[in-house]
Amino acid sequence: MSRMDVTFLGTGTSHGIPVIGCTCSVCTSSDVHDARYRSSILIQSEGKTLLVDTTPEFRLQALRANLTRLDAVLYTHAHADHFNGIDDLRVFCKHNSLPVYCKEEVAQDIRDRFPYVLHGEDVAGGIPHLDLKVLTSYEEVEIASFKVMPIPILHGKQTIFAFRIGSFAYATDCSEVPVQSLPYFEGLDTLVVGALRYWPHPTHYSVFEALAFAQRVRPRRVYLTHLSHGLSHQSLQAELPEGVQVAYDTLSLTIGGQDG
What we know:
Structural class: alpha/beta
CATH class: Alpha Beta
CATH superfamily: Ribonuclease Z/Hydroxyacylglutathione hydrolase-like
Number of strands: 14
CATH architecture: 4-Layer Sandwich
């Protein structure tokens, strides 16, 4: 696809920012870049739209982004901060079921936790009508004209999916990239990668680990996401090397063209 627009619907960690009850300098910051919904992105090209993950704020994110249509949803994994907004997909299922692409484990979570979103007798009504599509690791699939490559990465002991579409890759909630997955991150224009905080975490890259991964695969540019309240947008940006940016809610990127 010649041009693709990526919008950050949210860039925060599982708590969101501000964190409830917290009075730290980031949670009380007047910088709008420090206010972060839970992490999700929107991918658009040639009139087609993909959503990656449905956060608990998905309704608010969709309103803020003036989202009026979806062609499909991709799920990285089924943790609550990436998953629990699933009910708000119902507005995109009024006339047809909505395709949802994910690992088998995520599909099973949907069957177990939200069985009512499947096999509905009618399309209209107050519930989503989803059509589950199970992805296979390293097997590219065409979704609404996008060629999507699901790439296994580690989130602690759990294997989840990163996604590559053309020269763009999205790898949130990553704590390690298996050796066999590394080649799929090479030759990128843009890499989005999670960077939870400065110090190590058992299930997420730290800032320094995310930068080391980026140095290993050498994309043209890097955006850090899934940020905790331990990271000030302004302070972190001032410390980063050239070509690395701190993502923020509502930031829009263009892949295959000039950024707006």
